[in-house]
Design brief:
14% strand; 12 helices; alpha+beta; 4-stranded antiparallel β-sheet; 3-stranded antiparallel β-sheet
Amino acid sequence: LKNETDREKTFRFTAAVEWCLWNAVDDAANFQRNLNTGEVEREGNVLYHTTEYRERRDHYAWYGVNGDIAGYDTDRDAFLGQFGSFAAPQAVVNGRTGDFLAHGGAPMAGLALDVTLAPGEERSLLFVLGYGRNPREAKFLSPGVIRKDDAHRVMEKFSSPRGAEEALAELRDYWEELLGVYRLECGDRKLETMVNTWHQYQCMVTFNMSRSASFYEVIGIFILSRFKVISDPKLNERRDRTFPYIIETACFIGLAVYLNHINAPAWLSLFLIGGAVALIVLTVVNRWWKISGHATGMGGLCALLFYLMLSGNSIYSLHWEFLAAILLAGAVCSARVVMGRHTLGQVAAGFLNGFLWVAILPMIFQVTRL
């Protein structure tokens, strides 16, 4: 902020964020529960989101600024007003903050600063939105007081413009190195931005989120084939399927643990755990009877869509997607029978194996939360 006039300027600057209760889909649907769970804390110029921390979570979030605040808000309805919106919040229009800690409702973090600038004076305000995690055995400093070491460290780092500039430079250098290996220069700025930035970024995200798992599985099968652990990379023989199935099971479990670590929706981790259990069953039964792995995969896909339809975790109806998955499963299973890879009983057993395990675990979780 810089005062470029020849007079002293005084004004109020307000910044705000609304907290998600750790699950965006559930946050927008399960109001009977969510409107009673919100918890916040204040420590100087930082507001903390601590919903469910004392009960079952080991992580929290915060929003702070490198300056003294004149007021704060922690309840969205009080901040916006009865008929207000983020376009014109009541607290901003009236110039008055709530200055209380909300319990339940829709928690948020609003920070108001009174700023006075002399002619030509310049001031930097650094707002920090952060996330911290503590070991479960060291969640509290004392009874009822949560440990905020991560927040203190980050707020100290960004207490001056220099810290923010160094972090932004480091981030910029990282992306330049990652995306700079290929560059198009054609004179069309829009095309250059699309090819040099967004296409490469999307390819990287796609690889990290999905293709890397397939890559590891294929490489694992290739290595096993080269070392004669399996006789046929196509895995037509029962004895060749054991090690690849073990590799796939490890990938599923590893991804489930990672998603749980980053606080992804629980049903997503349980979907992968269900897939891992189905693979374990597939591995064991495969020693005596070659049930279809393709059918198991299709059964898992159908079960996921079926669960999302029933649980309400989808933001729109998935009936057509579920119908398409059923038709696709029928086509895949029929092809396995027509090609002579499996019998009808092996295909049916595979589909039920995938469907039941993937559907049961998230449903059990859903029931235990009620």
